[in-house]
What does this fold into?
Amino acid sequence: NFPRFGHTNNIASLASGLSGSSDTATSYIVGICGGAMLILAIALVWGMVIIGLQIAGQKKVGFMAGRLEHPDFAGASSSNKGGGTLPPIEEEPEDDESLLESEASSSAFIISNDIEVTQEQAKKENKFKRKVLIARVAFVLSGLGVIIASILFYAKGVASFHKSLTSAHGGLDLVQQIAYKTINMTDNAIYEKNALLGTLKTTKEDTGGRLCDGGAGPYAQEIQNGLAEFASEVEELSSMIDDNIGAFGNDLRELVTITEDVNDKLYSAEIFFGIAVAITVMINVLILAMLGQTYFSAKGVSNCCTKFITNAILWPVFSFFLVLAWIFATLFLVTSLAGSDFCVKPDVVVEGILRKHQDKFSSAIFQFIIYYISGCKVKPANSEVEAIADQIGLAVGTVHDVSEAMMGMSIPTLQGECGLDKAAATALEGGAELLHNGTHLLNKGWIEVRTLLECKTFNPVYTTLVHDAFCIDAVDGLTWLYSSAFAMFIFSMLMIMFRAGLYPVNHPSAKP
It folds into this structure.
């Protein structure tokens, strides 16, 4: 709900504009940056107000000008500017009697006037003490506000963001594990396929190139047709696996490379947490030092040491952290707004970004990624994966029928059926058994691949990464980081407004 000044808050427009020029993408950037510039406007206006108050001076705005001056201090200062006055010349009274009457009347007047002046001074003194108390209390409360905001900056903001990074690390590691497991299984599928081709070739060689094609028995034609059909199916399966599984594995390896790069960058972000801890500690130490200085000022302690610490150390460092708090507030506001916009419809945004880069995928892995992102709603066409599964099923069925027919025969019977000698018949029977076992291994491995590619495997990982780690922990952390940094900025500006509470009161007696 942060103001965008009429510009769009649809982050999908930014994603769509990344691949080319887009007015909507420009509108989004202008809107989010324009809203963040409100913080800059607040800082500039507030800074000008503080400068204006200091220029106005003590007489017009009191302690808001930056110092606590006793009312008598200004009077003493103004009276001393003229270098003193000559004493009045007294005239001699006309006679002693008139002199006595004059002295008596003036004594009564002086006593009455002194009482009124004393009462007036007491009121003025009490009023001034209240102002001093207000300035010091406001300064101390503002300092405590900075301390509390800095603690929230770390305890809520940094901690939530760190939790999101930890979840992201876990999710990316899980993606890598599943991807590596899938790669191993696809490699095994290629290996089992090659083993089938090798077994088929060896069986042909061991039978002299005759796979029961010279027999005249009742089962000879069935065995011959079955083996020929199986050989054709294995050749087609080999072609399908070579054409598709290789690209499938390459895409998975690319996915692993991407996740590793992202993980490395996330580990680099760990430096931020060390910096955040250092900043939090330094801010608290700085504010406590300023509050300690306020205590000494209230006790009237003022010397060269306290002045040097205040003017040469405390205020310069404080000004640095004030600017830092403003920069943090601006950056965290921008990222928090962008994260909140993204999390309105995160799946739509992620899918849009992926479709912009669809050409980088060369296998069905892209369809599966869209399937996982959609929450298992957009089912992949997965013609390649299903076609391979169907082809393996055909090969399993064919070799099962052939091997079942041959395994029920004795070697002499198989010799008679296929017209082979004992060695060739034995090789044919052994080859059929190997082909049977090999196709079942290939089928089992491919079932495991398909199980790994199911939505229940990858969708929870995606949900953990995007919905939990980013949209809950990261955005919540960014919101806390922005809010606490902005609070530090506000309370720091208040400390500058009430900086008079940091200094001792200027009394007339302190004037040389």
Summary: The chain is about 80% helix and 0% strand. The first helix runs from residue 11 to 17.
